[in-house]
Specification:
Blueprint (H helix, E strand, L loop, with lengths): L11 H51 L7 E5 L1 H10 L6 E4 L6 H4 L1 H6 L2 E7 L6 E14 L5 E13 L4 E5 L3 H12 L4 E12 L4 E12 L3 E14 L11 E2 L8 H23 L17
Parallel strand pairs: 2-6
Antiparallel strand pairs: 1-3, 2-10, 3-6, 4-5, 4-7, 7-8, 8-9
């Protein structure tokens, strides 16, 4: 039987092309998976960043605090009475300028001088920090054109919820001049301008501008009452300038003080009622005249 030999010729080019094609396909697959993973990672980073920004915006919105100044007219003893009658125990900060606190420490002036006071209260649930309160007042006599200016610049480290700040808008010289000009019917104009800067717990720095004009101590025009600027906080912390805490000047026994005040009000009301009663209602009747005599 004749042996048959089969001779096979290997096509090395075809084999190399097959292997190369497989390597390329594998490399393409690895590259595609890597690119897919990279894209997924980028998407995750973008989602995380978007989530962080959304949470930050929500936090800013939640902890956004607007402090609205207002002007009240009262003696400082009247302010203390109000705190007692309303059973208010929150800190009440009184600021002043370079002229000091003589207008408040003097008991007679505290009780008799009915002045205009700027009042700022933190009505939110969050602390506000690093308050900077700048005020400038300007009094002008329209007849003589004489001017008196007064500035204050105070800082407070922290103002907690329900706490307040009080600032007298005119100094003693302006106050006495206004009283005199009003008594003598002299035309006058008074401008009060205040800038209040503070930081929220959302790390925002807010600047609030409040400006009023008072004519002849009667007519009040609000010229500005608005947020002037909001920016991300980027400033050093402040301490607190000298102030008086009005709570320290309230009598220790508030209950006794309240009862005393109520007694005074009742007595005053009774006297007013008595004065309103006509004399012929005192219980005696006038007898008719006897015309036959």
């Amino acid at each position: 039987m004749e042996e048959v030999k089969v001779i096979t010729n290997t096509d090395w080019w075809m084999l190399g092309a097959t292997i190369l094609a497989g390597a390329i396909a594998a490399g393409a697959t690895v590259w595609a998976v890597r690119m897919s993973n990279e894209e997924t990672r980028k998407q995750l980073i973008q989602q995380q960043e978007q989530y962080r920004k959304e949470k930050e915006e929500q936090n800013k919105e939640k902890k956004f605090v607007v402090i609205k100044p207002m002007i009240m007219t009262s003696t400082f003893n009247g302010v203390l009475d109000k705190l007692i009658m309303q059973n208010d125990y929150d800190r009440k900060v009184l600021f002043s300028g370079d002229d000091g606190f003589e207008f408040f420490d003097d008991m007679e002036k505290r009780d008799s001088q009915r002045c205009r006071i700027m009042h700022i209260q933190n009505e939110s649930k969050y602390n506000i920090n690093n308050l900077v309160i700048f005020t400038e007042s300007y009094l002008k006599n329209n007849r003589t054109n004489n001017e008196i200016r007064y500035k204050t610049n105070n800082t407070l480290k922290i103002l907690r919820p329900k706490e307040s700040v009080f600032i007298r808008i005119a100094n003693q010289q302006q106050f006495e001049k206004i009283v005199k000009m009003t008594k003598e019917n002299e035309s006058n104009e008074f401008w009060f301008d205040s800038l209040v800067e503070y930081s929220t717990e959302a790390r925002q720095r807010i600047k609030y501008h409040y400006k009023v004009k008072i004519t002849n101590d009667i007519y009040i025009e609000i010229e500005k009452d608005e947020i002037e600027n909001i920016e991300d906080e980027a400033m050093d912390e402040y301490g607190s300038t000298v102030f008086r805490n009005l709570q320290d000047y309230i009598p220790f026994d508030r209950s006794a003080y309240v009862w005393k005040k109520m007694g005074q009000y009742q007595a005053s009301g009774a006297m007013a009622l008595f004065q309103m009663i006509p004399q012929n209602m005192s219980g005696k009747k006038d007898l008719p005249e006897n015309k036959n005599t």
